[in-house]
Amino acid sequence: MRSVDKALVCSWQVVEVYEEALQAQPTGRMYTLYADYLQDTLLQQSPDAQAQAEQLSGSQQATAQQLLHLYKRAYQAGEHVLAQIAAYRFAAFLLLHIFAQLGQQSMQACQHQLSLLQQSQ
Question: Which of 85, 79, 72 is nearest to 31 (CA)?
């Protein structure tokens, strides 16, 4: 089996696992994990060679439709699920913001140390 075929099979196997997990636990966290997987898949899928830059490939279109359908199902599941999804998204955004600030502070500290070393030489 070609590597592309294996990737597609694995992708459908993962989707089946997420679908089963959603049936067992239809929580905001499960919807978020599934949506994250679909978003990552969408970003990794390459566009068709013949398609223009602003067009999605067939596999990208299918994944995007699947993601939109997932969010529709989350909406239909109720406000409590949407609130959980929003909380996870906000927490992730907050963590990214904190990491960016820490990275900036670390960079400034390194630059300060480097300037001190350069001045001492």
Answer: 85
Q: Give residue 111's pLDDT.
A: 85
- Residue 69 lies in domain: 3-120
Q: Contact, 42 vs 65, CB < 8 A?
A: no
50, containing H or E segment: none
The DSSP 8-state label assigned to residue 48 in this structure reads: P
Residue 35 · residue 67 · CB < 8 Å: yes
Q: What is the three-state SS of 52-90?
A: CCCCCCHHHHHHHHHHHHHHHHHHHHCHHHHHHHHHHHH
Could you list the mean pLDDT of each consecutive 10-residue stretch along the chain, which spans 121 residues? 50 92 92 89 70 68 86 85 80 74 82 81 74
- pTM higher than 0.85: no
Residue entry with tokens 């199902």: 73
* Total number of domains in the chain: 1
pLDDT at position 1 is: 44
Angle at which helix 3-24 crosses helix 28-44, to 10 degrees, equals: 170
